[in-house]
Amino acid sequence: MVEETSRSIGPVVLLGAPGAGKGTQAKRIAARYGIPHVSTGDLLRDHVQRGTTLGQQVREAMSRGELVSDHLVCDMVKDRLRQADCARGSVMDGFPRTVAQARWLDMFLERECGFFDKSMSSKGWLIVIQLAVDYNQLLHRLTGRRTCPSCGRIYNVHLQPLRVAGACDLDGSTLVIRDDDREEVIRERLAVYERQTQPVAEYYRRKGRLTTVDGDLAVDEVTNKVFCEIDRAAGGST
Ligand code: AP5
Q1: Helix, strand, or coil (residue 163)
Q2: Cα torsion angle, 132, 207, 78, 38, sign
Q3: Residues of the chain with pLDDT > 90: what percent?
Q4: Which of the listed CATH numbers 3.30.300.230, 3.40.50.300, 3.30.70.240, 3.30.300.30 matches domain 10-134+197-234?
Q5: What are the b/e assignments for 194-209, b being 16+ CB within 10 Å?
Q6: Rg (CA), the chain
Q7: Which residues have CB under 6 Å of ligand 1?
Q8: Rounded to two decimals, what is the model's pTM?
Q9: Which residue in 136, 165, 222, 231 has its CB near the most CB atoms, within 10 A?
């Protein structure tokens, strides 16, 4: 149920390793606060599937579990954040993922939205929520992940029984396994996270914007904690 309709929310940045639950929680945040879910992974996969110029440029890096170049991702995010539905805020899943992307986002929000200027604080605020999950749990989650190609719902065959094996509980579509959810690619994605994305958490910690939630908890418990953090940040921003 959408509970909020007018006030600015976020942007909310979800930070966490592959499999930490960013996509799962981002969908719930989007539904509760009525803001769009901006997932750079979904946007890039859509380009690959449609065979656009960008899709052709990023296909190989993604299939190896490496990051796509900062400038390609930032240009794509800029186009997305300029769309009208992002005016009240957004929940960002998978971005920023390097310190260069985090710096770019600060600059973008400052220039285009007047963020970080105290006199304009009512325009919005940035909260970064890191979902912390144990390494072996991440491996287990990613090897069991299945996604519905029609409605986007995310499942896990190790952790949540399906009503009909291999089919979406909501619309019956055949569930798919992501190309980069093969074990050797998963290990590379986790290594890339340690190397290139952990420093982003440190970047936001130094700015006093980082909050950490225990992502090892059950999905609903994580959601409750995440909503509390957002509500607290929203309360403090007015
Ligand atoms: P992206 O699509 O962003 O993938 P990722 O970061 O690797 O994260 P995942 O989508 O794998 O995991 P998640 O945290 O969303 O977990 P989920 O909720 O699905 O990126 C893919 C690629 O695109 C990158 O490798 C890169 O090449 C490129 N890319 C994207 N953004 C980029 C950027 N900014 N810069 C450069 N390159 C970029 O959950 C996982 C599983 O766990 C599911 O089965 C779910 O049901 C289950 N689960 C979730 N929460 C829980 C819980 N609390 N308890 C039990 N199970 C749970």
Answers
A1: coil
A2: positive
A3: 78
A4: 3.40.50.300
A5: eebbeebbebbeeeeb
A6: 17
A7: 16, 18-24, 40-41, 44, 61-62, 65-68, 73, 94-95, 97, 101, 141, 144-145, 154-156, 159, 180, 189, 215, 217-219, 222
A8: 0.91
A9: 222
